[in-house]
Structure formats: C-alpha cells, structure tokens
Specification:
The protein is α/β, with parallel strands linked by helices. The chain has 12 helices and 12 strands. The chain folds into 2 domains: 2-159 and 196-222, Rossmann fold, CATH 3.40.50.720; 164-195 and 224-268 and 283-291, UDP-galactose 4-epimerase, domain 1. 40% of the residues lie in helices and 20% in strands. Helix 1 packs across helix 7. Residues 118-137 are annotated as: Disordered.
Length: 297
C-alpha cells in the first residue's frame, strides 16, 4: 500500500515509517523542512512539503494514497485551543479527500478524559464532541466519516510511548528532576499511567492500517498500569537523585505543565486490540527503559 503519513519525522511517526517500509509498503511523509525531507528520502520514503495548516497539501497527500495515517499534532501546550483547531481542520481535510473511497484513515488520539474510576476499553466512546472539545473532537469527527465511505480507525496512545530519544512526558519529568535535584511523584504516587514501547506502537499502526475494520478503536497499550511513584523512583535511580513526594498544590512549580498530566490517572486495557490484530507487544517496559538510561543520555 502507498501510505501518506503526517508527523512522519516525529517520535512515533518516524518509527511508523520504518515499520511500513520494512513491511514492503510505500510511504509519503508530510514534512515542514528540508531536513525532514532529507531524513525521509534517506530511508527510502517520499516527502510532501507542508504542515497541518496547509490543508491543500493534506488533501493532495490523501488523494494520492491508499491509506492515510494521521499522527501530527501541534502540541502547543501554551495555546491548546490552537492545537485543537488545527487538529479538527486537518482531520476534516483528510476525511473529505478520502470520502467514498473505503480507504483507511488512521487517526491518533489519547486516553486522557475517556472514563473515570477504571481503565478505558476500546468500547468507550470519546466524550469530546465538537470543535471546542479536547483535540477539537477529532476522534468523533473522524468516526463520522465511516458513514461517508472512509475506513476510519482510531489509535489511542498510552500517555508514555517510550524509548531512547523520547521527548514526551517522561522526558519532561526527567528534566524536572534535574532542575529540582530530586525526582518527584505527586501525593502518595498511586496515580497510574499506561505505557507502550515506540516500536510496539508502530507495529500496531501498521496492523491497523492493513486489517482493522471501519469504526475500530485501537489501544496502543502494552502495560495497563504503572504507578507514578514507580516512574519517579526509576528516574531517581537513573539520575542518582533522591525521590520525594510533592504536594498536589506544588505540582505546577515542581513539574511545569506536565504536572497536570502526572496528577491524572490515564490507563486503558488493550485486550480487544490484541485479539483483533494478533498484536503482542514485545518491547521493554517503561521502567526497564528508564533503568537502561533511555532518558539520561
């Protein structure tokens, strides 16, 4: 298949490009820069210059592809409304380009805010509906395109998609530990996160593109529940720093913006995903990655 990938040079996207090429698929990656274009062509992929605000480029990439994998997001933590606006506009452009084709559209989503008091399952619908909701309601918007002849597949990622070179949440927690000279957890550290290794997430995306039926929600979750205290202890070991409890009211000053997420339980099961696609995660665990120095290089 010829896959058009947004976010193709990003943390998850670059692994997805490698996975797709290794499986014999063609890849066209969206990139904003000459450096990104060079990275893609060096791998054997093609490049399409543009970004999430270039809706014409998104439409062209989708129109010329057998499948679309949408992973890009602005992640503007200082202006989340702008990230949500861009995300919704991008999904609409991609969906419109694929309407009536029955071609797959895989859309990245998150586990946060789905349910409270238990791990989320693939059957749980996102409560985010409409342009003013989280991520611009892009998950439900994408699923609306199933009725228009698009094989929409939602991929919800664990809050930690980890590995060497990760610049996501655990990287920010590690930076906060260095700055504060102590690795912290909030309260009693019983808040929990799900996790998945980057290569396992990439393989799941490929399998979803190849096999998942229209309207499927997939959970890129290898470990259902890792406590934030365990994460803090591993970061402390890796940096040789003490591990301390941080009062909830001090989480912002201690951790920065990531403190809000570190205070939230974000967990999910992936039983249905594993059964549907015969997906078996095989990468190292989050704690194993931290202990191996993935975040201290």
């Amino acid at each position: 298949m010829r896959a058009f990938v947004t976010g193709a040079t990003g943390w998850i996207g670059s692994a997805v490009v490698d996975e797709l090429l290794a499986a014999g698929h063609e890849v066209v990656g969206l990139t904003r820069s000459p450096e990104g274009e060079q990275k893609l062509t060096a791998k054997g992929a093609a490049a399409l210059r543009g970004d999430l605000d270039d809706l014409d480029a998104l439409r062209r990439g989708a129109a010329d592809a057998d499948a679309v994998i949408h992973l890009a997001n602005k992640h503007d933590w200082g202006n989340p409304a702008e990230s949500d606006r861009a995300e919704r506009a991008a999904v609409a452009a991609l969906g419109d380009a694929l309407a009536g084709s029955n071609r797959p559209l895989l859309v990245a989503s998150a586990l946060s805010g789905l349910v409270e008091g238990r791990p989320a399952t693939e059957d749980d619908a996102s409560p985010a509906v409409g342009p003013d909701s989280n991520r611009g309601g892009s998950e439900n918007l994408a699923l609306d395109y199933v009725a228009q002849g698009v094989r929409t597949v939602i991929v919800r990622f664990a809050p930690s998609v980890h590995g060497r070179g990760d610049w996501g949440f655990v990287n920010f927690l590690t930076a906060a530990a260095r700055k504060q000279s102590a690795s912290g957890y909030i309260g009693d550290g019983s808040t929990t996160w799900s996790a998945v290794h980057r290569t396992d997430a990439a393989r799941l995306i490929r399998l979803g593109m190849e096999q998942a039926p229209a309207g499927t929600r997939l959970h890129a979750v290898a470990e259902e529940s890792v406590t934030t205290k365990e994460i803090a202890e591993a970061i402390g070991r890796s940096l040789g720093l003490p591990v301390v409890s941080v009062a909830p009211e001090d989480a912002g000053p201690h951790f920065g913006f990531v403190g809000h997420f570190f205070a939230s339980t974000m967990t999910a099961t992936s039983t249905t995903t594993r059964q549907l696609l015969s997906w078996q995660p095989s990468g190292p665990s989050l704690i194993e990655d931290i202990d191996a120095g993935a975040y201290t290089a």
